[in-house]
């Protein structure tokens, strides 16, 4: 029977090896969206920091930090939320929601 200390040592060593083999962070990803209300935007998703930079057709730019989500990627601040799942998503601005789809 192995001791708890030995098991813990192997667990820590395994985690350290796995972290070292993980390689570089994933590259940023960009997608274009068209929403049901006519809004057009380009979203660039970054890993460090975890965020979505939204560039709207009128030139307005907004960067939303990633927040906890049980499903999909969710990015939000106090007035705006962009929640993506698969090839679609939902943009909510000041309580007004619109469904969006990728153009790609």
Automatic annotation (TrEMBL):
Name the record gives this protein: Membrane-bound inhibitor of C-type lysozyme
UniProt entry keywords in alphabetical sequence: Lipoprotein, Membrane, Palmitate, Signal
One Pfam family, short name: MliC
Residues in C-type lysozyme inhibitor domain copies: 33-98
Keyword Cytoplasm attached: no
Signal sequence bounds: 1-27
């Amino acid at each position: 029977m192995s001791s708890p200390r030995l098991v813990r040592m192997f667990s820590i060593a395994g985690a350290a090896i796995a972290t070292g083999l993980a390689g570089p962070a994933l590259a940023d990803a960009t997608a274009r969206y068209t929403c049901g209300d006519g809004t057009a935007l380009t979203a660039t998703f970054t890993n460090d920091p975890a965020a979505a930079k939204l560039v709207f057709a009128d030139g307005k730019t907004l960067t939303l930090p990633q927040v906890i989500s049980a499903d999909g990627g969710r990015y939000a601040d106090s007035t705006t939320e962009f929640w993506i799942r698969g090839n679609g998503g939902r943009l909510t601005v000041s309580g007004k929601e619109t469904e969006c789809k990728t153009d790609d």
